[in-house]
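Hi support team,

I've been running sequence recovery on a batch of backbones for a student project. Most finish fine, but this one hangs at about 90% for roughly twenty minutes before it completes. I'm not sure whether the input is malformed or the queue is just slow. I've pasted the structure tokens below so you can try to reproduce it. Let me know if you need the job ID as well.

Thanks,
M.K.
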């Protein structure tokens, strides 16, 4: 099938590469000339596992990148809109880019088109797209609008796309739903997974996957409600972690206990310094706003957000508890991206923490395996020192702060780290270690929802002094 994808951001680029991988001819459009040139030169633009392989396989063959939206619209029967929908000042999603694309499709319509919302959009956007299409001269029988939300996570976006837990098609026309079914057939019937060149399946893959057909409005709500629910789960466990700290319980043990109830599940129960990224914060605000406009005051979502923001201030208090005065203290920060496996720093709790620590007068030296270049743009005036090597950050540090759950940070060479530091103190915002491991390696270790553990060496010294 000839498919156009408008927008080459995280969702658009991964969708374009993955649709080419399952056999379609894809034209991926972006109005940013430098991005299109870079993609055509063979660059990947984002740090995403398996994306370089897919682009190398299909670029220039089944996958082309262009700025020419008119040509892409004319030559495709299905057009996916994957442009940005940022939060506007009042919390609503700014849909002006979606509207621009709808206008462009209407003006260039030359045959029947299926317009698919892939960007996360508030409920009723499909009706607005229909209206804009007709206002711009597209006859009503020349197009259908479908909502096909994307659930991919950054870092595992390619495998999430090729081995989804479900595919949701929100269509009010049977023909449009059938076309989408055909597009996804290699994933829905499991035939893609059987190919010898298929990208390897993740452990928890569901093959063949479920295809859920709903109304367009239901599909729009499914996307917002999924992200809001996941964000709520994270804030819930963070709140439980705070209770654990107060009563001397261990949140990791509590997670094991509650997560083994299949109705609750173990996923998205990792406590930490809160969620970030381009989706949860934005979608939560947009869903709150849509609910309010519809006449329902969804205050639970305010509390989810409040707990999330409070986690950062609680973490700052922990750092203070570890170091007393913060002014002039040298802190080694491990992690800048909003989670491990990505170079994305949008709404990153790690970046927010650094801003708070800079305000306190700390000296920050930071390391991240992928997000350093992007983070340098966030601190253009030398406020933060960046280190090309992980262990160099620890030299003379008063403490190491773990702010992102990169795999590499979960297997540190602890003796080497301790040797480099001024004080063997680790404040872990992602609970990557067992407190006993840290203590046995001579660290005083602070984490989330567990008792603070003072290193044996320091305890002995204070016992002797007493
Ligand atoms: C999310 C949704 O998972 C995905 O379905 C949707 O399409 C886009 O938004 P993403 O933002 O890529 O994906 O990352 P995700 O893995 O969901 O993590 C989001 C944030 O929550 C990160 O900051 C992560 O560190 C945090 N998180 C996640 C926790 O703090 N605890 C957890 O248990 C899980």
């Amino acid at each position: 099938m000839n498919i156009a994808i408008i927008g080459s951001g995280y969702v658009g680029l991964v969708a374009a590469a993955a649709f080419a991988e399952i056999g379609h001819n894809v034209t991926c459009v972006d109005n940013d000339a430098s991005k299109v040139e870079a993609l055509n030169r063979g660059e990947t633009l984002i740090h995403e596992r398996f994306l370089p392989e897919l682009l190398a396989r299909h670029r220039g063959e089944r996958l082309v990148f262009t700025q020419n939206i008119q040509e892409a619209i004319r030559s495709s029967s299905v057009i996916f809109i994957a442009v940005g929908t940022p939060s506007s000042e009042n919390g609503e999603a700014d849909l002006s880019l979606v509207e621009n694309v709808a206008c462009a499709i209407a003006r260039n319509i030359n045959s029947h088109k299926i317009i698919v919302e892939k960007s996360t959009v508030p409920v009723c956007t499909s009706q607005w797209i229909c209206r804009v299409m007709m206002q711009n001269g597209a006859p009503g029988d020349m197009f259908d609008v479908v909502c096909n939300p994307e659930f991919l996570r950054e870092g595992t976006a390619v495998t999430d796309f090729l081995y989804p837990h479900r595919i949701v098609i929100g269509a009010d026309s049977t023909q449009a739903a059938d076309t989408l079914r055909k597009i996804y057939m290699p994933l829905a019937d499991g035939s893609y997974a059987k190919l010898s060149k298929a990208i390897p399946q993740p452990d928890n893959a569901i093959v063949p996957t479920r295809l859920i057909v709903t109304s367009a409005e239901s599909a729009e709500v499914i996307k917002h409600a999924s992200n809001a629910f996941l964000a709520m789960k994270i804030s819930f466990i963070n709140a439980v972690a705070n209770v654990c700290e107060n009563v001397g319980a261990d949140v990791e043990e509590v997670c094991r206990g509650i997560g083994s109830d299949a109705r609750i599940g173990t996923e998205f129960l990792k406590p930490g310094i809160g969620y970030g990224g381009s989706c949860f914060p934005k979608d939560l605000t947009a869903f709150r706003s849509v609910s309010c406009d519809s006449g329902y005051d969804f205050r639970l979502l305010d509390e989810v957000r409040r707990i999330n923001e409070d986690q950062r201030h609680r973490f700052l208090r922990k750092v203070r508890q570890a170091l007393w005065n913060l002014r002039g203290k040298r802190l080694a920060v491990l992690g800048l991206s909003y989670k491990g496996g990505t170079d994305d720093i949008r709404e990153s709790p790690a970046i927010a923490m650094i801003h708070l620590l800079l305000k306190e007068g700390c000296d920050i030296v930071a390391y991240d395996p992928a997000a350093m270049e992007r983070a340098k743009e966030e601190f253009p005036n030398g406020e933060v020192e960046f280190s090309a090597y992980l262990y160099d950050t620890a030299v003379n540090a008063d403490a190491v702060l773990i702010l992102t759950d990169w795999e590499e940070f979960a297997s540190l060479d602890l003796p080497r780290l301790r040797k480099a530091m001024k004080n063997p103190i680790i404040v872990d915002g992602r609970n990557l270690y067992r407190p006993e491991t840290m203590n046995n390696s001579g660290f005083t270790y602070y984490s989330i929802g567990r008792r603070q553990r003072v290193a044996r060496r320091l305890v002995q010294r204070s016992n002797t002094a007493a």
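--
Follow-up from support: It reproduced on our side and the slowdown came from queue contention, not your input. Residues 150-154, 227, 230, 234, 268-270, 272, 275-277, 279-280, 338-339 surround uridine-5'-diphosphate-xylopyranose (CB under 6 Å). No action needed from you.
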